[in-house]
Amino acid sequence: MAEQRNATERRTLWIVLGLNIGLAIAFFASGAFGDSSALIANGLDNLSDSFVYAISLFALSRSAKWKRGAANVSGGLLILFALGILYDAWRRYVGGSHPLGTIMIVMALVAASINALCVWLLARLRDPDVNIRAANTFSWNDFAANLGIVVAGGLVAWLGTNWPDLVVGVIVAGIAAWGGVGILKDAHGEHRKAVHDDNQASEDIA
Question: SS3 for 28-65, per residue?
Fold first, then answer.
């Protein structure tokens, strides 16, 4: 039963990994063409997610300690990614940018549909471990960020200014940082539970 569950989780993570790599490439291309901080931010987000999914796949068939370690790496990567987005938004604020609202809206809608598929695939997994829960956090974060880009793209096209694009870039960074902290807390909770169970087992033996 455990082997079957691992096989299902592995297959799902491979699918989600492939989708996120494709999205990262599309976001980078559209962000460069559309001069959009928000699109570049989401490209970095999906690239970071891809690394995390790869780590999760590596840890999937390993011990609970390995899985907690992988989750800690996942949370740390999300926080580092958030700092990178903040730097990019600041660079564009100082140097100026001219984002294309239409490109932002179209790319965000495509990405939102793909991220919704990822959320659905991950939600089908039963009794998810800490890494699967982290993957689900990433997909929900991405979906929320995509909706933010749609709004920002509309404002950019309407107002003819770059500030909505920069604001969404910063918001995406905040969402990523919040998700990273949540994953680290989840992994820490799993560690405390494991220590408690080990201590309880030792007391039962004694």
Answer: HHHHHHHCCHHHHHHHHHHHHHHHHHHHHHHHCCCCHH
